[in-house]
Specification:
The complex is a heterodimer of chains A (444) and B (167).
Chain A lengths: L1 E3 L14 E6 L5 E6 L2 E5 L2 E6 L4 H8 L2 E7 L6 E12 L3 H16 L10 E12 L14 H12 L5 H14 L5 E8 L4 E8 L9 E3 L3 H9 L3 E3 L10 H5 L21 E9 L2 E10 L7 H27 L16 E7 L4 E4 L2 E4 L1 H17 L3 E3 H6 L12 H15 L3 E7 L2 E6 L2 E7 L2
Chain B lengths: L8 H7 L4 E7 L5 E5 L2 E4 L6 E6 L4 H8 L4 E6 L6 E6 L1 E6 L2 H19 L5 H8 L6 E7 L2 E4 L9 E4 L6
Antiparallel strand pairs in B: 1-2, 1-5, 3-4, 4-8, 5-6, 6-9, 7-8, 9-10
The chains are: A alpha+beta (444), B alpha+beta (167).
Chain lengths: 444, 167
């Protein structure tokens, strides 16, 4: 019997092999039970799902002492955990993380509709012992997460603007973390939405597609500021076909942009990107394989998200601080047929010809730039002057203006041949017109 | 001598069919102990059940049994989630003989076959559960009750129960 730290037994808690728990009733009758999910909380605590008022539940309320046995699915090592029941949480980040994982486990084991999380039972783990026996060596990892994080720290620091930061993050995920499907979404807190600013590994980029905060793994990660990791395909946390095919459910004048996610992800990990207490967005990775992401991957992505959040905040601050430039007038007037650009005042959606381009704050910004350009011929603008335009609906200084500009720039690059937005320096941009436009304002 | 129950035939067949098995007891301060079982046989009259465990992987549980601790055993078939539990207070411990070593080999082979359908290799099952056979201990339990424990709201219902037995 060897005493070890709970951290070493963490691989046993992935749910591949169900943990078992022994409890004892007030009259001294023992009980053994299989556990749907045991979640690592920290080096001294685990949490168990409370789903039914069963014997285990009855026993721990009368006698908080318990003993669990867990098995490593790779090395075959077994561990015994001394447990002491502390409390039950029925809401909050840990509860939500466990609820999402349980949904994955339930659908994998044919228990969808049977398993319902009532609470997360928190236990202290005063002692972890490895049970005597032969175990296999852990095979070498396909990737070195610590080295990947080191590279991330170096390369993210070199990014000159937010767009480069988003792309570098996804590039690091693909090449250093060996994760093929990833997306980055930025939070629009006043509207309780998240919008995609970059993705990698999907048939479509989905830039501009939106998800409600609270919806699916990404929305729940944003709402509760907690990493959500699911190791099996589950309908409960799937993004409906509505958002993926981009047709149904949208308002008549607003074609929703298709969401980039995998149609049937078997593993998903969504990590909030925060700066202090402020939510910046969500980093989400997916895999078509079960159990693609481990506790270690979750740790690594949380650390990566910290780097992304800190770097993004610094870049945004410096972009906003950059001075306004004297407005220069545009180059030679564009030629070609006239293209109509319509702006719907209600939700600021902008259509170029008959194609939906963008809406919301990014739509309002584009419309304003086009108007100024049409009136004065100016084509150079700065973040600082956009901030000063109170009618744009930029909620306050904490708004992710720079991220909205990245979104606008990318949507234009993907969907519009006559308008482009170029970065010309820190906090500076140029509107480039490649065709003749007719601006039409629509009241709806 | 307390009255005992006769295990129904289907329960006896189930627990001998090569399923996952976990034993629980407790000490005098009601601190639970836990160990994996590796084999099971039911007496001809179905009035007692013998459970096989490796001592090196069940130190605390065997100590509790030696001090008169009661026993609970949960059996579960991974492919169907069918689960039931048997409990009793009368437990005797003895070193396992060659017949029980052979039975344990067969039991784990059946269990490995069950787990193979879920993608586990027989080698893995062997690595987890098999230890030095001189370490094998036979625990004979007189069941006082058997309980349904398949996950769901019906869990905990008595399948057969001696009047007045603890559950």
């Amino acid at each position: 019997m060897t005493q070890v730290t709970l951290d070493l037994a963490r691989n046993c808690l992935e749910g591949t092999i169900p943990a078992v728990i022994a409890t004892c009733a007030a009259d001294g009758t023992p009980n053994a039970a299989y556990v749907s999910q045991m979640q690592y909380v920290d080096a001294g605590h685990v949490a168990l799902t409370f789903q039914f008022f069963n014997k285990t539940r009855e026993n721990i309320l009368a006698n908080p002492q318990a003993t669990a046995l867990v098995i490593d699915p790779v090395t075959s090592a077994s561990f015994r955990l001394s447990l002491l029941y502390l409390r039950t949480e029925t809401e909050g980040p840990l509860f939500q993380a466990m609820k999402a994982r349980l949904a994955g486990i339930a659908s994998h084991t044919g228990m969808a509709g049977v398993f319902k999380l009532r609470g997360a039972d928190i236990y202290a783990v005063p002692l972890v012992e490895q049970i005597k026996g032969d175990s296999r060596p852990r095979p070498p990892r396909a990737r070195n997460l610590l080295h990947a994080l080191r590279l991330a720290g170096e390369r993210l620091g070199e990014c000159a603007d937010l767009g480069a930061l988003f792309d570098q993050t996804l590039s690091l995920l693909a090449h250093e973390f060996r994760i093929s499907h990833a997306m980055l979404l930025v939070a629009d807190l006043p509207n309780q939405r998240l919008y995609t600013v970059a993705s990698r590994g999907y048939a479509i980029t989905g830039v501009g597609s939106e998800i409600a905060i609270g919806d699916g793994v990404i929305g729940v990660a944003a709402q509760y500021r907690v990493p959500i990791r699911i190791n099996h395909m589950t309908l409960e946390y799937r993004y409906g076909s509505v958002s993926r095919d981009g047709t149904a459910g949208a308002a008549p004048l607003e074609s929703a942009i298709p969401f980039p996610g995998l149609a049937e992800p078997h593993s998903q990990l969504a990590v909030p990107v925060t700066v202090g207490a402020r939510l910046l967005g969500v980093l989400c990775v997916e895999s078509p394989q079960d159990h693609a992401f481990s506790y270690d991957d979750e740790d690594a992505l949380v650390a990566l998200a910290c780097l992304v959040g800190t770097t993004a905040a610094a870049l945004q601050q410096s972009a906003d601080a950059a001075p306004s430039v004297a407005g220069s007038s545009g180059a030679s007037a564009p030629q070609g047929p006239v293209v109509e650009v319509r702006h719907y005042r209600g939700n600021h959606s902008v259509f170029v010809g008959s194609d939906y381009l963008i809406k919301g704050v990014a739509g309002a910004i584009l419309w304003r730039l086009l108007q100024v350009q049409a009136e004065s011929g100016r084509c150079d603008f700065s973040n600082r002057e956009l901030r000063a335009m109170s009618d744009l609906g930029l909620p306050d200084l904490s708004d992710n203006l720079e991220a909205r500009l990245v979104l606008l720039q990318r949507r234009l690059a993907e969907r519009c041949r006559v308008i482009a937005l170029e970065k010309t320096g820190r906090g500076q941009m140029r509107l480039v017109l490649l065709g003749r436009l007719r601006l039409t304002e629509v009241d709806d | 001598m307390r009255a005992t129950i006769e295990l129904p035939e289907d329960i006896a067949a189930f627990i001998q069919s090569g399923v996952s098995m976990t034993l629980a007891s407790r000490d005098d301060r009601f601190v639970p102990s836990i160990a994996k079982g590796v084999g099971c046989r039911v007496s001809p009259g179905r009035g007692s059940v013998t459970l096989l465990v490796f001592a090196g992987a069940a130190e605390a549980l065997l100590r509790d049994i030696a001090h008169g601790g009661p026993l609970a055993v949960v059996f579960s078939r991974p492919t169907t989630n069918q689960t039931l539990q048997i409990k009793g207070r009368e437990v005797t411990s003895a070193p396992a003989g060659p017949a029980d070593v052979a039975l344990t080999r067969r039991y784990l082979a059946l269990f490995a076959e069950e787990l193979r359908r879920l993608g586990w290799s027989p080698d893995y099952v062997n690595d987890v559960f098999w230890h030095d056979p001189v370490d094998l201990v036979a625990l004979q339990l007189v069941p006082e009750g058997a309980f349904q424990q398949t996950p769901g709201p019906g869990a905990g219902a008595a399948l057969c129960l001696e009047p007045g037995a603890a559950r």
